[in-house]
Design goal:
about 20% strand; about 70 residues; about 20% helix; binds zinc ion; alpha+beta; 4 strands
């Protein structure tokens, strides 16, 4: 029997204790976290998360607070 491929991506590190539903939600959030996001000040794609709730735009150089895990729109 072939081994089952795991479809858990970044949340795999949490093991099985959290359930698939929780982990698939986490995957979405983590994806957003790592991607560059649209800046609310210059509306260009250049915002990266610096730390929890702190965002930094490379395009206009602004640093601002928003959601801990993704930008609030
Ligand atoms: Zn900007």
């Amino acid at each position: 029997m072939a081994a089952k491929k795991k479809k858990i991506k970044a949340s795999g590190r949490f093991g099985s204790g959290y359930g698939t539903n929780v982990r698939s939600k986490l995957n979405k959030i983590e994806l957003l976290q790592r991607k560059k996001q649209v800046c609310p000040h210059c509306s260009k794609l250049g915002v990266k998360r610096e730390s929890s709730g702190i965002w930094n735009c490379k395009k206009c150089g602004k640093r601002f607070a928003s959601g801990a895990y993704y930008l609030k729109h």
